[in-house]
Write a structure and sequence with these properties.
It contains eight helices and twelve strands. The strands form two sheets. Strands 3-2-1-4-5-12 form a six-stranded parallel sheet, with helices on both faces. Strands 6-11-10-7-8-9 form a six-stranded parallel sheet, with helices on both faces. α7 links the parallel β10 and β11. The radius of gyration is 19 Å and the shape is elongated. The structure holds NADP nicotinamide-adenine-dinucleotide phosphate. The site of NADP nicotinamide-adenine-dinucleotide phosphate (NAP) has 23 residues, from β2, α2 and α3.
């Protein structure tokens, strides 16, 4: 039987590498959102399944014995579909999610908010330049309230909508080092950072650098996981589960 990894994250790639090392058969799935995705080792399929029903049909049509949802902590659409489809088909499901940043040094001084709308309200009263690092799909929550502000946006893929005139958009892909984050924030005189609680080390340098600069850090909390969803926070634990009989 094959383990289906719902991916698009560094953890998902690490899990693929670990299952490969252990000789477990697996298939990684990517959404297909970025033009040049970082590919995991092993077999990969790319593109949506067509909602929960589409995923359930996929699970039925292929010899999938277990699913590991290793998507990003903010990919709630895919997570909900995985819960529904696995329940419908009785395929075991595990969530692999990296720990959040609440325990980071300085986290007590950050402003934690529940969603992008609250982050936009907080940022509207904060010092400029405001560095928005919440992802391309979230920008709509900020364009109204921050239309007249000096804003720096960092995204992986080019935007398909225009942004307000005082906004600067840079396209680049991580990981970013403390040194490059320091240079970027100094060059744009960043006084406020808005981000989401992605967790992990991959995008963490910006938080340390912003905190060291004395910038206001606004962090959007993670959406709560569905009740009863089995979850681990290490690749090794996910590999143990995936490699065990189900
Ligand atoms: P999302 O809103 O939860 O998902 C929207 C739709 O995209 C899903 O309903 C599904 O389409 C498709 N999809 C998402 N992940 C998929 C996967 N691994 N394999 C196949 N289809 C997938 O997801 P998102 O927030 O747009 O994230 C898209 C991808 O980027 C995810 O793989 C995630 O791990 C990665 N990512 C997201 C973020 C973030 O901040 N959200 C950051 C880094 C990486 P169907 O309904 O058609 O199946």
């Amino acid at each position: 039987m094959t383990v289906l990894i719902l991916g698009g994250t560094a953890e998902a790639r690490a899990l693929a590498a670990e299952l490969d090392r252990r000789g477990v058969t697996f298939l990684s799935s990517l959404a297909g959102r970025v033009s040049r995705p970082r590919l995991p080792v092993g077999a990969v399929r790319i593109g949506g399944f067509g909602g929960a029903d589409g995923l359930a049909a996929f699970l039925t049509a292929h010899p999938i014995g277990a699913v590991v949802d290793a998507t990003h902590p903010f990919a709630v659409g895919m997570r909900g579909n995985a819960v529904a489809a696995c329940a419908q088909t009785s395929v075991p499901l595990l969530r692999l999610a990296r720990p959040g940043w609440a325990q980071n040094p300085g986290a007590d001084d950050w402003l934690w908010v529940d969603d992008m709308a609250a982050a936009a309200r907080a940022a509207a009263g904060a010092d400029e330049t405001i560095f928005l690092s919440t992802g391309r799909q979230t920008l709509g929550a900020f364009t109204g309230l921050l239309a007249d502000k000096t804003v720096l946006v960092r995204v992986v893929e080019p935007l398909d909508h225009p942004v307000p005139g005082r906004w600067t958009v840079i396209h680049t892909r991580g990981p970013f080092t403390a040194e490059t984050e320091r240079e970027l924030m100094a060059a744009h005189d960043v006084r406020t950072l808005v981000t989401k609680d992605s967790g992990g080390d991959y995008t963490r340098a910006k938080l340390d650098v912003a905190t060291a600069r004395g910038a206001q850090v606004i962090v959007v909390r993670r959406p709560a996981p569905p009740a009863g969803m089995r979850e681990v926070d290490t690749v090794a634990a996910a590999a143990d589960w995936a490699g065990a009989p189900h």
